[in-house]
Specification:
Methylamine Dehydrogenase, Chain H, 3 helices, mainly beta, 339 residues
């Protein structure tokens, strides 16, 4: 009996150790996303990706708290802080968030050293934060199981790189500043700075890039049957192009600074010396109306609200019902921890 007890103890220890190792490996495992997974909308990403809606939650960068990462319901209830990192270009896929941690222009000591720039992965509950790349990055776009991102170094400038979500592979795709924001059916539609800013398509499954439309475009957003874009040939008017019919339409003759498309709505910033304003209209250009007068930026849209702020003034953040009557208010998130 004594010998049996002597054997049982090491066996139990081996089982416990094995269970701990299995749990540790499981926690590090990054499950594959289903085909068609996109981390955020193109319109949000070209507006710095400050809001991201996924699985009934909205993840956002909170400028009232040093741009740190928060989560809430789409109706702005149950606000909760997830991380002390200042973030932008937020993407969501599966159980994880992917984002760019913004740096600080000045500072010293340990707190400053911790707040270095980089691309991160984090579970949606705020746990298991992992740095994927310790370099400056621009737009990040999650496509299935890869991150396509504008990667900057002092030596090379800004390239378009790809990295697997589990960091198992990484490569440079284009030695140019190309935006991976607009994606449909695993194809990135982008303006090519090396070819007159013509519209190109990069198939992420085959790795083949090709000329899609010989027209000078800026910030293309492929939405529904149309590609919406700022037309460089007409002083940045907002146009749309139907690739199936080859028809281009003028949606507004206003010069615009930025825009976002969501469902059947477009919000855009009119560029004007005398009458700048945030405007909204239907995706066919009809029912134009002024949302707010002034110069605004960072137009991010969720199912319930449109968020924006005055140019170069982070707070207050304003919000407007995505579809409802014009009634602009201040977005003032209050964390459940502070209540």
């Amino acid at each position: 009996m004594h010998k049996i007890k002597q054997l049982i103890v090491p066996v139990i220890l081996l089982i416990v150790i094995g269970a701990v190792l299995f749990l540790a490996l499981w926690m590090k495992h990054i499950p594959s996303n289903p085909n068609g997974t996109l981390g955020n909308t193109a319109g949000n990403l070209i507006n710095n990706g400050l809001f991201c809606e996924s699985d009934g939650k909205v993840y956002f960068s909170n400028p009232y708290d040093q741009d740190t990462l928060y989560v809430m319901n789409p109706d702005e209830t149950e606000v909760e802080k997830l991380s002390a990192m200042g973030v932008q270009s937020i993407n969501a896929g599966g159980d994880f968030l992917y984002f760019y941690q913004k740096g600080s222009s000045e500072g010293s000591g340990l707190g400053f050293l911790i707040k270095t720039v980089g691309m991160y992965r984090m579970r949606k509950d705020g746990s298991s934060s992992t740095c994927l790349k310790r370099d400056p990055a621009g737009i990040i776009s999650l496509i299935n199981n890869d991150l396509y991102y504008q990667h900057y170094t002092n030596k090379t400038g800004t390239y378009l790189d790809r990295m697997a979500i589990d960091k198992s592979s990484e490569e440079t795709l284009f030695e140019s500043m190309i935006s991976p924001a607009s994606v449909v059916n695993n194809v990135i539609y982008y303006t090519n700075p090396d070819d007159y800013h013509y519209l190109y398509a990069y198939d992420t499954t085959t790795g083949i890039a090709s000329l899609f439309w010989p027209h000078r475009v800026w910030n293309p957003v492929y939405h529904g049957d149309y590609i919406y874009f700022m037309d460089m040939e007409t002083d940045y008017e907002l146009h749309r192009y139907n690739p199936y019919t080859g028809v281009e339409e003028v949606l507004t003759t206003d010069r615009i600074d930025t825009f976002n498309v969501y469902d059947n709505m477009i919000y855009y910033q009119r560029s004007s010396q005398t009458e700048p304003a945030l405007i909204r209209m239907r995706t066919d250009g009809s029912y134009q109306e002024v949302v707010a007068r002034g110069v605004f930026q960072n137009i991010n849209i969720t199912s319930n609200f449109v968020y924006f702020n005055e140019y170069d003034i982070p707070t207050p953040v304003y919000h407007q019902s995505t579809y409802g009557a014009i009634s602009v208010g201040q977005f003032t998130p209050i964390s459940v921890d502070a209540e």
